[in-house]
Design brief:
heterodimer; A: 208 residues; mainly alpha; B: 163 residues; two-stranded antiparallel ribbon; 4 helices; 2 strands; 68% helix; rod-shaped
């Protein structure tokens, strides 16, 4: 069984600062380290850095939560909650893994907390603002129907299946990163993703 | 990221991919709102700390007042009873006798000291409680970040308790 806690605690024990690590890495990796630098600035109380970090990650986070909850308002609230937690933990952050791994680990915790708080899954499958207007053309209605089927299929599956496939296909994280975020083994992640894909394809096939 | 094939057609994959695309869902003011929320939390936190600091000053002031009262309280000066010995010289009596007024003042001072002690204890409790309440909030944050059994949680708890 993958020891997620070991990996996670390593973040806190890593002794190299983000600035040092940027100097040692080639240019193509610097985009990734931009997040680490921003986190250092956030830890120093730089609000502009926090805004920059939010702008870089707001859409990935909101999309992740939206697909998990089917509510844009809730997705925005949870994304904001993640950034608040990130701000609070900034002075502790050490760049031992990709920033996205760290960010989505917090995001998934927030999501699980939200599920516990709600005690049930949301009833609506699409946010009201995403519902088709009666005058929309057939092609748009068809797309929205597919979207609703897709979203419904996502909500049908267990949370770990859904989060795993979202992290892989939507956030483009590796199996290893997903395993770290979800504190499980890569093998388990692959199994969850396989099952999630099967369900999604089956549901979409029914509609198309 | 391209995924491995599971006997599906490219069309199915494209269809899936299209639903996994990251859309521009964030409202234009999202970053500003998030910053405002962070600043509000920071402000509340600072106010809480200031309040705790104020209580600290209150405790110190109460202590100083209590000590002053204690040190300047009425003393029991012995009333020397006159006694004559063989040499005709006056000697002092052995037992001190309290003046009723002095005794009353002393009791009043003692009562005040007791009240002060109770006030101090109450303040101390209040400070402790306030700290516990804040810690409770921080622990809630930590629990949201990780499972209790993970070392990461422990790290966070130490961080939050210290921060």
């Amino acid at each position: 069984v993958h020891d997620g806690t070991k990996t996670l605690s390593a973040w806190a024990n890593f002794g190299v600062s983000a600035r040092d690590s940027v100097m040692e890495k080639p240019a193509e990796e610097r985009a990734v380290d931009e997040d680490a630098l921003l986190m250092e600035r956030v830890a120093d109380g730089d609000d502009a850095a926090l805004v920059a970090l939010v702008r870089r990650w707001q859409n990935p986070l909101i999309n992740f939560f939206y697909r998990s909850l089917s509510s844009r308002a809730d997705a925005e609230d949870l994304a904001q909650s993640v950034f608040i937690k990130l701000h609070r933990a900034a002075h502790r952050y050490q760049p031992t893994a990709r920033f996205s791994t760290y960010l989505f680990h917090i995001a998934r915790r927030v999501l699980l907390n939200e599920f516990r708080r709600q005690g049930r899954k949301p009833l609506h499958l699409l946010a009201p603002e995403d519902l088709p207007s009666p005058s929309a053309p057939d092609s748009v209605l068809k797309l929205l129907e597919l979207e609703e089927v897709f979203q419904k299929a996502l909500l049908l599956m267990p949370e770990n299946h859904r989060s795993a496939i979202l992290l892989l296909r939507q956030q483009e994280l590796s199996y290893a990163e997903i395993a770290t975020i979800m504190e499980t083994s890569e093998g388990m992640v692959k199994t969850w993703i396989f099952r999630a894909r099967q369900l999604l394809k089956e549901e979409l096939r029914k509609t198309t | 990221m391209k995924s491995e094939s599971y006997h599906e057609t490219p069309d199915q994959e494209d269809l899936l991919d299209s639903h996994f695309l990251i859309r521009d869902l964030a409202p234009p003011d999202f970053a500003a709102r998030t910053l405002a929320a962070v600043q509000e939390i920071r402000k509340r936190r600072r106010a809480r700390l200031n309040r705790l600091g104020g209580w600290g000053v209150g405790v110190a002031a109460s202590l100083a007042l209590g000590l002053t009262l204690y040190l300047s309280g009425p003393t029991t000066e012995p009333e020397w009873a006159a006694e004559k010995d063989g040499g005709g010289r006056e000697v002092t009596a052995l037992a001190p006798v309290l003046d009723p007024k002095q005794a009353e003042a002393m009791n009043a001072a003692q009562y005040l000291n007791d009240l002060l002690y109770m006030a101090l204890s109450g303040t101390e409790q209040a400070v402790l409680y306030a700290q516990a309440a804040e810690l409770d909030t921080l622990l809630g944050e930590a629990i949201a970040l990780a499972d209790e059994e993970s070392l990461y949680t422990l790290d966070m708890l130490i961080l939050l308790a210290g921060g």
